[in-house]
Design a protein that fits this description.
The protein has two domains: about 150 residues; about 160 residues, Farnesyl Diphosphate Synthase (Orthogonal Bundle), CATH 1.10.600.10. It is globular and about 55 Å long. It is built from 14 helices and no strands. By secondary structure, it is mainly alpha-helical. The longest helix has 23 residues.
Length: about 325
Amino acid sequence: MTDWLVIYEKSYQPVKLHNRGVNPHQHPPSSSATTVTSAPALAEAVTHYENFPVASWLCPPHLRQPIAAIYGFARTADDLADEGDVLPEQRLHDLAEYRAELQHIAAGNAPKPCWQKVFGPLQVQIREHKLPVQLLDDLLDAFMQDIVFTRDGCTYLNQRELLDYCRRSANPVGRLLLHLYGVNDARSLEQSDAICSALQLINFWQDLSVDLPRGRHYLTDEDCERFNVTRKTIAGQHRSADTDRLVMHNAATARALMMSGAPLVHTLKGRIGWELRMVVQGGLRILDKVEAQNGGSLTQRATIRPWDAPLMLWRAAWM
């Protein structure tokens, strides 16, 4: 999950997801695994929202509960889509039920007992803050697309298709947060979309060495052809001058997109403005690392270290 909530995820303490048997952030060992589990069992894992870093000092106190509810909803969906030794068909079934439950509670119906811990708080916040349900549904649509693309070995034809995925996988969270902050002008929404899509793209280029072995392909056909890189080369993670240029091109595209949205930090005042500055600088710092590797993230993941924080803070202060 790569969006404005990325800063909240860092101190999220995962709990055991019953009957799936692995840590929530552990990669599934194989897409051909045969263990299946009903989705409601996962609802037991979503507890203690106050443990989420949503409650950090940067988050306005009156928005901690709605942001926690959104985070719990998105985190659980992410686990349904990516957790344990579960076949793609079962994941799609689980997410379809989860999606139906969203529409069920949005219509004013009481959450089913098995989903009470997720949809109970979310229903309260939808009602109190008039959260746009379509944005929440878009997140689920993106999760389901990711499962189908991975299962079927699909690739993205061009940047337009990839950004359409980002429109549903990342942009909704930024728009939900702007809704909570009472910011709804077209320019701010466009800048938020740029930041969120950039964060999603940055995550893709940071995680190439992790995603490719799992059958996830985000480098577009058009870009691969442009830089004379074959799908076989990408799938085999064979680094070359051509793959380096391909990754560097995509890193530059993500940086330009991030910079186009960065002026939003001057619209959002106070704590959230500072938080957004750090989110932007975190994304840009990852790009620094990718570029320092000369595009080598095909085989080596770029990561932010604690000693990067002072530089990010300094840059945030001068935005």
